[in-house]
Amino acid sequence: MGLMDNMKQLGDLKKMRDQAMEIQKKLSGIKITVEHKGVTVVMTADQKVVSIDGEQDFNKITEAVNEALKQTQKVAAEEMKGLMGGLGIPGM
User: Which residues form the domain of 49?
Assistant: First the structure.
């Protein structure tokens, strides 16, 4: 591998890093609200809890948070499709 190949790889890595940081920033700005069994959970798509309101039952809160996590994972997966598709990784 020559110097030019190494330079291209470094450029590709920087581009991938920049794209990943852009997606992370975008995910942090997306808020998802889930209402589940009397509990409302607001979470960002990068899986940070913003608020939890409603029932004080621990099991209901746990279920609502888990449901919110599922939703954030779906949003993050959709956002990542574009990045992974651009990498040319087989099976992604």
Answer: 3-86
